[in-house]
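HOLO CASE FILE
Compound: iron/sulfur cluster
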Amino acid sequence: MLRYLVAQSGDEIFRRRALLKTIQRSGRLAFTLVEHAFDHAFGPRINPFYHLGALSFFFFWVVTASGIYLFIFFETSIEGAYRSVEYLTHEQWYLGSVARSLHRYASDAMVIVVLLHLAREFVLDRYRGVRWYAWITGVLLLWFLYASGIGGYWLVWDRLAQYIAVVTAEWFDWLPIFGEPMARNFLNNAAVSDRFFSLLSFLHIGIPLFLLLGMWIHILRISVAKTNPPRAIMIGTLLALTVLSALYPALSQGPADLDTVVSVVRPDWFYLALYPLIDVWSPGVAWGIAGGGTLLLMILPWLPRRREAAAAVVSLPNCNGCGRCFADCPYSAVIMLPRTDGLPYDSQASVNPDLCTACGICVGACPTATPFRRKTELIAGIDMPLLAIRTIREKTLTATTKLEGQDRVLVYGCQPGIDLTGLAQKGVGVLTLPCVAALTPSFIDFVITRHHADGVMLVGCAAGDCYHRLGVDWTEQRLAGQRDPYLRGRVPRERIATAWVAPSGAKRLTQALDAFRSRLRDMGPYQKGGSLPPPSASPSSNHGEVSDAAYRLG
Ligand code: HEM
Ligand code: SF4
Ligand code: SF4
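Model generated. Tokens follow.
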């Protein structure tokens, strides 16, 4: 019986996972198509889809700035509220109206990008395992976001606000929590007081402050969280919203009058989509949708739970306490502790396995993870149990031994990124790592200066969209000598190519590899001291594209 039950629940988990996988795959395809179009239009570096979390922050600040301006003129009384908003809209059309419209449109934009951010994290499977924390706090943020926006509509005290007030009261009255029904407060004009408006204003400031606190909590476990989108995206979206505000200013829908019943309103669908349902169906159904939806989102990271690969492990005898792994871990999984083993260093690294996604970026940061080490057993200060540095060295040698010609390339790719199996051919070896930044630059040095291949190509996720968040940035900085451990000056940069490509970029990647090999043929074999790089060249300007040589594109 027990065996039967276990088998049944196993089947159930399998079915659930299969369904989720199908939804994720279709969602991913849809995102890829749209992102591909945006890549074409703007280039990957300023593709807004790669900065949705940061854009949410940006729109929050736009809403805050415009809100502060509105608040200067806002009157917190029943008569004054509508009048002051009308004054801003019509008398101060040049600034007040634009600020009001910006406040509204940026709030709508925030809902759009937050929902896209949620959907994207889901389809890319970045919500389970260690990431459950960001996911759960994100779900809670949705409630604060909606409460902030709906509260704002209420303050205008027009017909729409009246509709919201009455329907919200009906909605909450369905819950057996209030002694007196809330709806009584909106029976007629005499039932609403100026004090009530002061309370509303207070809430409309207080809830967004809690939203901000929640946003901070949301990114607590993410190191170097990107909370500002690239400047071009900020300027572009702000300009677009300002033009929209000037062309289609936000307008009130006539003064509220509780002595009459509202028959027609134009709701803002981004915030108020649930309201017609409360009206048409019942408050209970609306609670079912909102509460059930929240609950479903909350348990999603455990349907089923993701089992991360084995966490990084510190080898104290090999750790000199330099702290590079601590600085580079994108998930704050490494901490530095006082030394405990008597070696003459101040600190030692320690990994919290509950936060580790097994990306290996810490290994790529560790100066001891070098294939040149002559110790009998190659063990790094920090290493991945499933793909130890020793194994990467062995695989590097295996992948290069059979390569022939003067254009031999070893491609290091990343497991969450584009599938590289098609690239392996005569003259091209392929090795896939958990993240491209799991490779210390010394491996590139090793491969080229020891003649294992004529060139090295690093392939990672599209710029700004690294699955492990910082892998591409750290790799570029290490190559450019801006971040430890950096690539030694003796390695000819023209023998290195980088390609940051989305899964849809297979054709571009093949073309880049062909072009790279053709240049290697022209260069001839590597000779010690042959061609030295420009020392201060920076690769960051090619961020996001397939480059021919990491250093020459500065
Ligand atoms: C006010 C709303 C939100 C803001 C401002 C926000 C902002 C951010 C930011 C800035 C990051 C870090 C991005 C990076 O540096 O890589 C992030 C990550 C994340 N967010 Fe949100 N977010 C919001 C809502 C949500 C929601 C509703 C969800 C899903 C329910 C969500 C899920 C996640 C997840 C799973 C990550 C972690 C990604 C990773 O570890 O790679 N967020 N968010
Ligand atoms: S494997 Fe990745 S998540 Fe784990 S400690 Fe290293 S850098 Fe951090
Ligand atoms: S990078 Fe390596 S040597 Fe430096 S603290 Fe981390 S484990 Fe130790």
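CASE NOTES: The beta strands are 313-314, 334-338, 347-351, 382-383, 409-414, 428-433, 455-460, 496-500. The longest helix spans residues 2-42.
CLOSED: yes
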